[in-house]
TrEMBL record:
Keywords: Bacterial flagellum, Cell projection, Cilium, Flagellum, Secreted. The lineage of its organism: Bacteria, Pseudomonadati, Pseudomonadota, Gammaproteobacteria, Aeromonadales. The gene is lafA. It comes from Aeromonas jandaei. SUPFAM superfamilies: Phase 1 flagellin. It comes from the Bacteria. InterPro entries: Flagellin, Flagellin_N. GO terms for molecular function: structural molecule activity. PANTHER family: FLAGELLIN (PTHR42792). Its main location: other. Belongs to the bacterial flagellin family. One of its GO terms (cellular component) is extracellular region. It is found in: Bacterial flagellum; Secreted. Residues 2-85 form the Flagellin N-terminal domain. This is Lateral flagellin.
Length: 191
């Protein structure tokens, strides 16, 4: 009975962990869309056909999009816990208890793939804090500089999303295995 109960709680914990990661990954998806729009604006501003007025309007949108990226980073939460903000959530050590024994856990370390990729997205001097992104696209030179930095930013978001996906996939397999073990344990207890 105790084993079956532990498996049931482990499944619930795993499903909660999946939901938590899906929340963060969904935020990263929106960040990816925003960065793509910022890259489009930078590319357009870098073009010699853009006027000073055009660049001013594009820079205003670019700045607002950068602010929204900061907003997503600072305000993406799950159960009141910040997920993406520098030094918190998935940038630190996160342990999910995914079974009925203390050994059955998924540990995401601050030195692991996910945390490392996230630090490249929202760390100091990276992503929205990158020098070329911070100065905007108000002139052709700044726009050109932003283009390369935004490419890197987009790549790092992709790496983070991939790491979330791999861990979500692992947890889905954990849930399936726990469900199978619980079913077999319950059948054995019923004999």
């Amino acid at each position: 009975q105790s084993q079956s109960s532990g498996q049931k709680v482990g499944m619930r914990n795993s499903q909660d962990a999946i939901s938590m990661m899906q929340t963060a990954e969904g935020a990263m998806d929106e960040m990816s869309n925003i960065v793509q729009r910022m890259k489009d604006l930078a590319t357009q501003s870098a073009n010699g056909t853009s006027t000073a007025e055009d660049r001013k309007a594009m820079d205003a949108e670019f700045t607002e999009l950068r602010s929204e990226l900061d907003n997503i980073t600072n305000n993406t939460t799950f159960g009141g816990q910040s997920l993406l903000k520098s030094g918190t959530g998935f940038q630190g050590d996160v342990t999910f208890q995914i079974g009925g024994t203390s050994a059955e856990k998924l540990e995401l370390k601050s030195t692991g793939t996910l945390a490392t990729a996230l630090k490249e997205v929202v760390g100091t001097g990276k992503g929205t804090d990158g020098a070329a992104v911070k100065v905007g696209i108000g002139d052709q030179g700044k726009a050109t500089a932003s283009m390369a930095e935004l490419d890197t930013f987009s790549q790092k978001i992709g790496e983070s999303r991939s790491a979330f996906g791999a861990n979500i996939n692992r947890l889905e397999h954990t849930v399936n295995n726990l469900s199978n073990m619980k079913e077999n344990t319950d059948m054995a207890n019923g004999r």
